[in-house]
Amino acid sequence: MNKLYIGNVSAEASEEDLETIFERLKIPHSGPFLVKTGYAFVDCPDEKAANLAIERISGNEELFGKVLEVAISVPKSQRSCKMQIRNIPPHMQWEVLDGMLAQYGTVESCEQVNTDTETAVVNVRYAAKDQARLAMEKLNGSMMENFALKVSYIPDETAAAEGASGRGRRGFNARGTPRSGSPGQGARPKMQSDIPLRMLVPTQFVGAIIGKEGATIRNITKQTHSKIDIHRKENAGAAEKPITIHSTPEGCLNACMTIMEIMQKEAVDTKFTEAIPLKILAHNNFVGRLIGKEGRNLKKIEQDTGTKITISALLDLTVYNLERTITINGTLKESNKALEELMTKIMESYESDMAAMNLQSNLIPGLNLNALGLFPSGAPGMGPSMSGMPPHGAHGGSAYGCSPYGGEGTFWASKLSASSQPFSGQPESETVHLFIPALAVGAIIGKQGQHIKQLSHFAGASIKIAPAEEKDSIQRVVIIIGTPEAQFKAQCRIFGKLKEENFFGPKEEVKLEAHIKVPSFAAGRVIGKGGKTVNELQNLTCAEVVVPRDQTPDENDQVIVKIIGHFFACQLAQRKIQEILAQVRRQQQPKPTSGGQPPQPRRK
Questions:
Q1: I want to staple 503 with a disulfide (CB 3.0 to 4.6 A). Which of 248, 396, 404, 498 is the partner?
Q2: What is the spatial distance between Cα 530 and Cα 523, in angstroms, rounded to a whole number?
Q3: Which strand (E) or helix (H) includes residue 201?
């Protein structure tokens, strides 16, 4: 199938006008033009002719004052997980392309298409249609190094035909003169690190790092095969600006050291007398493991490298900024060695967390981890962020496990979502009553209610503290109303906050009691025959699940189910119970009858 869609067609255009353009550009077509209002269709004899039409006409040819857009015509029913991306800069680095594609989902394959054009063309297959659709929406027409990307679907039948030849090889075929680390090179370079390196630099050196008309930063990018983002517009007036480096671990180190050398040279030229230590940012989740028991890990790195390493205080963290600043004092050589060891530790922690989260994503049914936005695009520590975040903190900020700056998508979440099943349609809102120590209420609310407002905004949930039932109550109830994803985020942050504020001991696991309400007629299904279901729930989730006997249903004919356990145990139990309730609701729905006729009585 090589049918082309021609968009942005003027109402004055005729079949002859379009045919004239094709003949002038020597593009063969195998049938008449079907002209509609605002668009047209035409068949090409083969894929090569279709690609030629897209390259030469789309965005380049004007007809009656309108610039034509050309793409492969794919009916909605045939839109697959596979798409073609055209007009890719020929010198684009492998790491940059991988990172760009991975923002929108799990990439199963990526093969280059041989064309006669200077720019590169690739066929990309995502793990799911919604991921491909998102990539299509975000990438089509987006600018990359002064090249406007052109993205079109590849229909199912074409994808199936091409899959046989391209399957099993994730990479590009050689085209023309190979360029080191670019799509034109047959052999893949080392894989990009899942965790970008985040560093802080004094604001006065940002201009020197960028260079005249961006020449310096382009040179660093080219030499180190990395993608470097300088977030100079964030935190106006701040003394330091964050820089994010996407590359292989070796590329990140080289780019970082090059930036340090540029700053030191600029300091000499401008007679800047203060020391310029190397500062990197890491998510608080990793810091405990970096430090080690009684600080042993950090002391060993200092001894091995001859550096002095300090880490910013926990007090600097907020719900929107969970990054800690790690400052390395030493010579460039010593700092480079220390950074290498720190990055190794962070990667080990990241891989451990990934394994644990993959396990949980398999266990928790119905939870769309993509929608959670909990995990940054690079990793839980040093990655890019979800867009649309509220005002940032001191260093660009990040929400619980969320990314520190806007606009690059949720890469880590997309990796996990491949194994989690998203909800069909719009997820329903749920209400959970979470019991916390009465003394912790102030920590959850925050000064002038700031923390609970931020948490509610971040999670997308309604979060309220219920009044105390008695004057001397040792527990208070947090009422959380929101979708399953909102519940996950809100409860996760509350569990974490109680640990951070030392309401539980350093070796004590945070275990809380949660109450959810279920219809009284469904309580028996949660319990199961002879308590079989509830026992299985407890064995699977490691949570204590209790349906109190002799409950009097409330005014909505609902009863309480109690869940007690650590965070993931509680989440898993909640999801499993909601799954049981969904089955009950489905079974209660009247079955549709064909033709709208009432069911006929059975013959005896």
A1: 498
A2: 13
A3: strand 197-202
